[in-house]
Write a structure and sequence with these properties.
Number of strands: 0
Strand content: under 5%
Structural class: mainly alpha
Order of helices and strands: HHHHHHH
Oligomer: single chain
Number of helices: 7
Largest sheet: none
Shape: globular
């Protein structure tokens, strides 16, 4: 059970983010862009506090809702295209990916399309990128 000091720290992290960008329905491109800027500062970080994780989760839901309402449907992205995009966003190379999927040769084969992402690898990628494992299969 968290101590009073830990609970206050979580609340403080969450409150600072709320003050930066309030969690409310996004109604314009300008608001969406501001929300995306906030998520960019938090995504991919492994040192998020529980308050920051909760905030990021809620904000991601609001962004997804706005984009679903306003953007035209996109073609489905393949798991490898998604992986390459996430790697670029996180400044990862094949060696770093290899540490996640099991080996650098496996990572290279996945990226070149010579090998599909296994269920076990998809689960590890999902943990690393905080996505559903189904996105990688």
């Amino acid at each position: 059970m968290p101590t009073t000091l830990q609970t206050k720290s979580i609340a403080d992290d969450y409150l600072r983010l709320i003050q930066r960008f309030a969690l409310k329905r996004i109604t314009s491109d300008a608001q969406n862009n501001a929300a995306l800027e906030v998520t960019d500062t938090l995504m991919g970080r492994e040192d998020l506090s529980p308050g920051q994780r909760d905030y990021l989760s809620a904000l991601a839901t609001l962004i997804a809702d706005y984009e679903t309402r306003t953007l035209p449907p996109r073609e489905k992205v393949t798991p490898v295209e998604l992986l390459k995009h996430l790697m670029a966003e996180n400044k990862m190379n094949a060696t770093a990916l290899g540490k996640i999927v099991g080996s650098q040769p496996a990572a290279s084969m996945i990226l070149s399309g010579k090998r599909a992402i296994s269920k076990a690898q998809a689960k590890r990628l999902a943990v690393r990128f905080r996505l559903d494992a189904g996105a990688f299969i």
